[in-house]
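Bench notes, afternoon.
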Amino acid sequence: MASKTYSQPTAGSPARRAGIGATLIAALGGLLFGYDTGIISAALLYIGPQFDLGDQAQQIVVASLLVGAIIGVATGGSLMDRIGRKRTLAATAALFTLGAIVSAVSTSLAELLIARVALGLAIGCSSVAVPAYIAEIAPAHLRGRLVSVNQLMISSGILSSYLVGYLLSDSGAWRWMLAIAAVPAIGMLIGLVRLGESPRWLLTRGREDEARRILAKHLSPADVDNEIADIVHSMAAERKFSYRDLLGKRFRPGIVLGIGVAATNQLVGVNAVTYYTPTLLSRAGFGDSAAILSSVGIGVANVTFTFLGYLLVDRVGRRPLLLIGTGITVAALILIGTLYAATDLTGVNRILIVAALMVYEAAFSASLGIAMWLVNSEVFPTAVRGKAGSFGLATHWILNLLISVTVLTTINAITPSGLFFSYAVLGALGFVFLARRMPETRGKRLEEIEAVLQRSPAPASPDAQPETGVPPRAAAVAQPES
């Protein structure tokens, strides 16, 4: 196929504004993801006594959402490939609204668990559909940043949940903590009315005229024909693939990478911190309000460094950002484990443990937090992205579930220091995997990345070339296609 050169929409242009606007509306799914997963950390301090819950029962409350998320991931990929990205997002927004309301008015543990499973279904579906939708409407030179908006919104949702939890901690109003999530859910549902469908999905259904109209909102007019031709070319040899087909040689490198990134993301124990920080700190002598306030500081680090990663991911590249961040995350885990083992967490030691948790959260957020969603949204061709990406996402949620139901019982068995040292060992193994398998994909179109993975699973740096002054997107698409 002939080489093409793409122009870039100028800052403030209607095409650029439309792309950013669509990203922000879709990424409300990420905000809801973060809020609904994070709010349980504060609410659990009050739900536990109200329903007389022991450690195992508290873990079940946390895990119920994750059971739903696993089901949502397993069905979300096929659903969005069948009915489209936009309709899938609308369905998840409606489910977010219903789940928030029902969980807030629950009068028994059973009702609460059912509502949280429903919220989990919405979270699982949105974790598949939001990054895929954004990746498919974004030009290559902005794709990393725009997909990373999803992770930024997840982090913002977690921070928002910590702030709400702190503001309502004196009254213990856990029902209001859960109910507030309905507000952004309704906003997302309304905003989706104005959004168009993914042009890539429309082309898989032969609806080229609609795809052209959508692309005209996000690309300059001169680029629409080129983009259509690229997408059609990439789909020319595609057929319907089963999950068995996806395990063949062609897609295996991407699936292995997606699973590996997702596994490392979870095995460093980030959700032990997200779900249980107030519980862990209150058991170490912090009061309930102080424990929740400390989690707000951790949430601030999460959002701040997610935004830093957002700024760097298309400048520094995926690979260096991921490896440096993972290395710091492992070092922070070792420090946290050492502080728990060597001190009684009084006085200045309380400040040190919170600071260490903030460093951990910051390093994770700028690297593994972003890479989890970005890698699984950009390493597969259009026709199989929903199904193929679900392998990594299922890994994420299954490990998330296993961690959520073992944190408190593991602490009882091997102490908090043993828990964090275990996560450090698993994170170090993940670092080795990523150093061997993660290529650099910065500036490449979605249709090119498959060829990069096929050439070599070892480290590759497609951007290792002399500076030419050519913008990343133009440099990428100017190369002959495989």
